[in-house]
Amino acid sequence: MRFAFIGGIYSNYWALRATLDDISRRGVDGVWFLGDLGAFGPHPDRIPELLIERGMPGIQGNYEESLSSRAEDCHCGYTDPRDSHYAQISYDYTFANTSDAHKDWMGTLPREIRFQAGGKRFLLVHGSPRRINEFLWRSTSPDPFLERLCVESEADVIVCTHTGLHWHRPLPGGRHVVNAGVIGRPANDGRTNVWFAVVEVNGGAVTAEFVPVEYDHRRLAGEMQKERLPGEFIETVLTGWWTTCLEVLPPKERAAGRF
Ligand SMILES: [Fe+2]
Prior knowledge:
alpha/beta; Purple Acid Phosphatase, chain A, domain 2; four-stranded mixed β-sheet; 20% strand; binds fe (ii) ion
């Protein structure tokens, strides 16, 4: 059985279209979105529109939690003032351009989804099982910590997003944690593609594949420009390097980027 997981979409409509096309060619057994439908990109209403039209199941991210409760900010979990400054610009734009009907719909989304497949208990969360905005980075998540998360949340396979960077960690006892990455912005590697995850369960073995998605990033950048979104956000889309909301990166992940 194979399942596709779509991490943060960040209003990247063109990447979502390309991702759904790719997934439909794969003939997977299920597809879920993992929250943060809005953020850096333009015209946030297009994302819920498409997801509702497709009837796709998924969970709340911190964005949906904030938008549906009409909160003042995204509760992204940033602590650095520069990260928070750009996060606020992004949130204010998204808030102003998301319809009340979509905000209400976001409030109906679950915070987690559980299912069983191939003898494995799956748990889908946005940040971590214990906090919607916890950042699970590869370099700062040692095995015993991830194992504890699995045990405490009674899951064999945890699938999350929120950080923007994808990774997979097999753990003792057949447990796994998969950060599906995001399709909203590139993975801070100088490439313009974005990523989603396909997890396969076969005879008790779990494998994770990260799929690169090319999309019309110039078109997205043009739309962002028309909406007068910050040039820093557009630069990330065009270059593949993060320019904002990166003070939160741990040293190892920070060193892999340009800024
Ligand atoms: Fe998030």
